[in-house]
Automatic annotation (TrEMBL):
Belongs to the SRR1 family. Coiled coil: none annotated. Residues 15-26 have a biased composition (Basic residues). Residues 105-241 form the SRR1-like domain. Transmembrane segments: none annotated. Residues 1-40 are annotated as: Disordered. Pfam families: SRR1. It comes from the Eukaryota. This is Similar to SRR1-like protein (Predicted), isoform CRA_a. The lineage of its organism: Eukaryota, Metazoa, Chordata, Craniata, Vertebrata.
Length: 249
């Protein structure tokens, strides 16, 4: 089934924050204040610095190895996973063709939701830097990567375009069908509804066997929600939470 590579809770949400009063020091454990948005050149420079800092970190090395191994196994075992999933009696799906898969990451695509406003938020910048390092490590062409966040500014769209990734023009709300391509979904701390919509859009043995999600732990989501709420509002997460292959980093 879909593989989920769960990020540590240390990766925080990256929504815009209100400016603190002048002279106020951040409390212990509080995240850094958002920076004023700079021009494209300055944003690219800060992103490069974040990427270089992240590249030499133990966390990045360990996380990339975990994700790479997960993707490698996903590609190698796709056929056997598809056969096993056929016994789960999943319903019909809007995607999935059953076509054979070439074992090469050049055929893999990446979809990123909820990246955050990286021009002004350091945490979002690190998340973007990690995405770029992941694409590099797995040899996935940037032209095979699509990104979306409703908070992106024109400067951020310009920067992303210059990096070679494609900015989606419409909010898919997580309803992205993989069709016949293996797809990595990079969803750092997205809302539960987006994960549920993603599963719904790929609800077939063939489609789910081509999905890898880098995001929140489904087991963690299940533990934080009442069983009734999970079943009523996020039924697809409830159906797969005890059947997916999950790895933490």
């Amino acid at each position: 089934m879909a593989a989920v590579v769960a990020a540590s809770e240390r990766w925080s949400a990256v929504a815009r924050r209100r400016k603190r009063a002048a002279g106020r020091r951040p409390r212990q454990g509080e995240e850094p204040q958002a920076e004023p948005e700079a021009d494209s050149e300055a944003v690219l420079r800060r992103l490069l610095e974040a990427e270089e800092d992240l590249r030499i970190s133990d966390f990045c090395s360990s996380a990339l190895e975990t994700i790479t191994e997960c993707l490698r196994k996903q590609l190698e075992q796709l056929q056997s996973l598809t056969e096993a999933l056929g016994r789960l009696h999943l319903g019909s799906s809007p995607g999935g063709s059953g076509e054979p898969l070439a074992l090469s990451t050049s055929n893999v695509k990446c979809v990123c939701y909820g990246l955050g406003t990286f021009a002004s938020c350091p945490a979002a910048r690190i998340q973007l830097a990690f995405l770029l390092l992941f694409l590099e490590k797995c040899q996935i062409p940037r032209s095979h990567c699509w990104v979306y966040d409703p908070l992106f500014s024109q400067t951020e769209v310009s920067v992303l375009t210059s990096l070679g990734v494609t900015v989606l023009s419409e909010n898919e709300e997580g309803k992205h069908s993989v069709q016949s391509q293996p797809t990595v979904f990079y969803m750092p701390h997205c809302g539960t509804a987006l994960y549920n919509n993603l599963l719904w859009s790929n609800w077939s043995a063939d489609a789910l066997s081509r999905v890898v999600i880098i995001g929140n732990s489904f087991q963690g989501l299940e533990e934080r929600l009442l069983a009734r709420i999970l079943q009523e509002n996020y039924s697809y997460i409830a159906k797969v939470s005890d059947r997916i292959a999950g790895l933490g980093f």
